[in-house]
Amino acid sequence: MKPKPFCNLFNLKKLHDCFFSPAIVLCLAVFLIIPFRAAAQQVDNVDEAFREARTLAFDGNRDEARTLAYAILEISPNYHDVRILIARTYSWDGSYSEAREELNYVLEQSPRHRDAHLAAIDNEIWSEEYQQAIFLARQASNFYPVDEQVLLKRAGAHYSAGEEREALRVLNQIEQINPSNGEAQELRRSIRTSLQNYILTASYTQDRFEDFFGTTQRSYLQLSRRTPYGSVIGRLNYQNRFSTDGLQAEIDFYPSIADGWYGYLNAGYSSSSIFPEFRGGAELHRRLPRSFEGSLGVRYLNFSGSQIFIYTGSLTKYYGSWLFAVRPFVTPSSVGFSRSFNFTVRRYYAGPENYATLRGGFGFSPEERRFQDVSGDIFLTQSQFIGVDGFKTVRYNLAVFASLDIARQELSFDPGEYIRILTFNGGIQIKF
């Protein structure tokens, strides 16, 4: 007997009618719903269940926390603290609309609910709806005009919206109520820092040579200004070298070009023989995936008609609190190319303005102070160096820094012979 095709062994239409009949669908629905109803019925003590849901939420198990919280609401639909917890978990997950819906329900039922107001303000700040956050904070202030936490949320909303002056006014109200409020003091420091668009820096450097040369002294006074287009820095350099004093004026600009892109531009002039007559530089920086950053650029130095171009770039990797960077320099000349490499390892402490650095390099040094001897001639000499530096914030508007380098420099008048140089640098920075 000829076997029947597999598809004919079953009547597919009958199977469809059987499994998808209204009776079967109803049974399946009841079968699926009953466990959830049973879960709600298994909540014997809503307060204990709420504490368990809070623990789950704070431990990062937010889906489980919401499941248990909704089970509690099946028994006690007006347990507002439970619904606020649900809203908080939605906010933490970035589901701001769902959080808003839950909080609106609580505030409709209980317009004076303090924790619901606080959660609602946070939700709008985190969703970057700053004006709505300010509106909600003002509403909460009407109910709780002397509540420090409500006022602190209101100040935070103004600060997030870029309204620093209004935020400071609210902080003044908090300090009238409680002058020792630590959160208010911390927020005030943050606001003061954000309002500091100017930085004044003074630095002093001394080079001590092992032989042949006297001590070289350098210093600079620098003023930087933060603008919407990037930071602009004006600097006046002073140097005493070979019993000669010299001044150099410089300007730096770090333009913001596009998302992930920024630049560096430099120009300088001096009439002194111990500085380049003209100097310039340009570099393009790009943020890369996996916390990398790369750049390509050029430096230009002109010593009384003798021109030098230095081609450079950098590759930087950020890893947690660490920075690793390498920067090559390539200098063309009539006899070929001179090369050098600088390496940096930096450890950050409590923010980007507190760090310690280990630096090193070898090859031809790109610093113009190494190019010239007493006669003013240019030499492409070799060097190696290692150094450490540190930067420390003393208070919100004051920082200090220092560095120590040891270099081994080839003598321009005796190629192949080297001299040791000890370099110390220290300075202070004031923001205002």
Q: Main traits of this protein?
A:
Porin, 14-stranded antiparallel barrel, Serine Threonine Protein Phosphatase 5, Tetratricopeptide repeat, elongated, 11 helices, disordered N terminus, 432 residues
Radius of gyration from CA coordinates: 34 Å
The major β-sheet equals: 14 strands, antiparallel, barrel
Shape: elongated
Report helical residue fraction.
25-40%
Strand content: 35-45%
> What strand line-up does the widest sheet have?
1-2-3-4-5-6-7-8-9-10-11-12-13-14
The CATH class of the largest domain: Mainly Beta
* Number of continuous helical runs: 11
CATH architecture of the largest domain: Beta Barrel
- What is the CATH topology assignment of the largest domain? Porin
Q: How do the SSEs run, as a string of H and E?
A: HHHHHHHHHHHEEEEEEEEEEEEEE
DSSP, total strands? 14
State the low-pLDDT regions, or none. Answer: 1-16, 23-41, 369-376
Describe the protein's architecture and organization:
There is one protein chain. With 432 residues, this protein is an alpha+beta fold. It has 2 domains: 33-189, Tetratricopeptide repeat domain (Serine Threonine Protein Phosphatase 5, Tetratricopeptide repeat); 198-431, Porin (Beta Barrel), CATH 2.40.160. The protein contains 11 helices and 14 strands. The protein has a 14-stranded antiparallel beta barrel. A hairpin with a 2-residue loop joins strand 4 (244-258) and strand 5. The longest helix has 20 residues, at 22-41.
